[in-house]
Amino acid sequence: MSKNVDVKRAKILDVAKRRFAHFGMTKTTMAEIAKDLSFSKALLYYYFPDKHSLYTAVLEHVVNEMINKVEAYIPSASGVEEILLYAVESRMSIMRDNYNLFEYSSSQFIQNPGEMGKNIGPYFERIRDQYSRILKKGVDNKEIKVDDFNETAELLLFSLMGMRVGILSKDLNDCLFPTPDEFDLILTKQQKMVKIFLRGLRHS
Q: Domains in the chain, ordered, with CATH?
């Protein structure tokens, strides 16, 4: 892929992300995105054959933003707890800023878990791998003791996800994504969960 193509693709993802985040997936059309870009619809379809493929690419783009933001923070952090608390806070902030984007993915997961699982699964694995590396840093610094990095990272992520589902006040058949008013409460509880989780990994 040429540098020019990379630049155009990045521009499309950035513009589409803003529109999806503001208006949502169902209320956004490819024609509107092309107009925002000052592109022809034909050029937009050259890069992305349909709105679903563009949405999936935007979701991946935002997950990359989450991961890269934490990676950039790691070298300056004082310890594993600070890194994990930042990871939880920055992830929640990005989800809040892109509310309609993530809310749609959650609703689609409820309607078609198999298909959405194919898209969401690799993102979970990448975040798990990042958490695993963060835990290893904590072990290298002799802050914590971990026997299996990937398994422990998964347990932490599942704990955080379970905390979110447990707090949500909506019907349990539609509880994968919080309302805007629930973000602060969920973040506070997840931060406490990180501290409790790490306490169990501390050297005795």
A: 50-199 (1.10.357.10)
